[in-house]
Design brief:
alpha/beta; Rossmann fold; about 375 residues; Beta-Lactamase; six-stranded antiparallel sheet; seven-stranded mixed sheet; 15 helices
Length: about 375
């Protein structure tokens, strides 16, 4: 099978793309690469339709979604190769397929390059924890690592609601129930509502898509549950604004108050090219303490204010993107131009690096 052959030949593939009129393509370390070789040819519309049909199988809900909404998500297991998160969509009347490769083993903080003190977030007793970043930044892997850590160290009941299920968690110290959108529950909101009646200690929701799921996640946190979820937001500041702006203007003061009481941490991440090869994670961590609460509860404060809160909270395990980027540049892990291209505040990072270099020279 073409899919198995590609995965066995290229162990570093993160994504596969099958599109009509194109040779199969893969993404390795963030770079789009066209597969070439004997027996490979540009795919036809019939080819991609057959691939999509094989991957979707007899999942009637996914088939209906594809017909009615033009796309669907499913998970797919390939014996000997692992699992895939499959997105099939209609474009110009034909099927295209994009697949994310899911590692067979559940990653831990070390293998993902995450700071060890992130374990403190997994050991919280209640509240809302958000993992954010652009698509492809590793949010699902980080959520899986957090759930796996809890599973290893805590006797509790974990419920996940995912679209689709990616990493498979076996029962360890915890009891873990995983529910997949469309096959196990018709919507994230209904899955969340049901979870509140299923005696969980920990709830993991794959994404907070809209006002209803945000509201339900906050309700779960307010009623003593530890809730993990993800958002496609680039940093902590925009995460807060995205959550608040999901609600009507008249509701926003109340939402800010709820966040101030129930948000425990925002973990934002980016994957950037290293100076050697591959990509390295850059992690921003916001934890809620009295100064953070003031930021959450009062509208109009700037991103600069929140960054200062994270700088001042280093002793509590907080860190901000540009500060971590500066460390990577000084350590030779990331080159200067790459860091500046990914910086939240390009000018600020440039000044910080120049200041650091001046201090180094003056001490010699």
């Amino acid at each position: 099978m073409l899919l198995a052959a590609v995965l066995r030949t290229h162990s570093q593939v993160s994504d596969l793309i099958f599109s009509p009129g194109r040779l199969p393509q893969v993404i390795i370390h963030g770079q789009l690469i066209t597969m070439e070789g004997a027996g490979l040819h540009p795919l036809t519309a019939d080819d991609t339709r057959r691939i999509a049909a094989d991957l979707i199988g007899n999942n009637k809900q996914a088939i209906n979604l594809l017909r009615e909404q033009g796309f669907c998500d499913v998970s797919y297991s390939l014996p000997g190769c692992g699992r895939l998160r499959v997105n099939t969509f209609i474009q110009r009347g034909s099927c295209a397929v994009v697949m994310r490769v899911i590692p067979t083993s559940i990653p831990d903080f070390t293998s993902l390059g995450l700071p060890p003190h992130l374990a403190e977030v997994a050991e919280l007793s209640d509240g809302l924890v958000l993992v954010t970043g652009p698509p492809g930044s590793g949010k699902s892997s980080t959520l899986a690592a957090l759930v796996n850590h809890i599973n290893q160290v805590r006797t509790c009941h974990i419920i996940t609601i995912e679209d689709p299920i990616e990493f498979l968690h076996n029962h360890q110290r915890a009891t873990v129930h995983q529910r997949e959108l469309h096959s196990d529950t018709p919507s994230l909101a209904l899955g969340l509502r049901a979870a509140l009646r299923q005696s969980p200690d920990v709830i993991m929701v794959g994404d907070l898509h809209d006002r209803e799921t945000i509201d339900l996640a906050l309700e779960a946190a307010e009623t003593g549950h530890l809730v993990f979820s993800a958002l496609n937001t680039p940093d902590a500041a925009q995460t807060v604004e995205r959550l608040v702006n999901a609600f009507a203007v008249v509701e926003q003061p109340g939402v800010r108050g709820r966040l101030a009481k129930n948000l425990r941490a925002v973990v934002s991440q980016r994957l950037i090219p290293s100076s050697a090869s591959g990509r390295v994670p850059v992690i921003e961590i916001l934890k809620v303490h009295p100064r953070t609460v003031a930021y959450l509860d009062v509208p109009g404060l700037s991103r600069h204010d929140l960054v200062q809160v994270m700088k001042d909270g280093a002793a509590q395990g907080m860190q901000h993107f540009d500060g971590e980027m500066e460390k990577l540049v000084r350590g030779g892990v990331v080159d200067l131009e790459t860091a500046l291209g990914y910086a939240s505040d390009r000018e600020g990072l440039q000044k910080a690096l120049e200041s650091s270099e001046s201090r180094t020279k003056s001490s010699m």
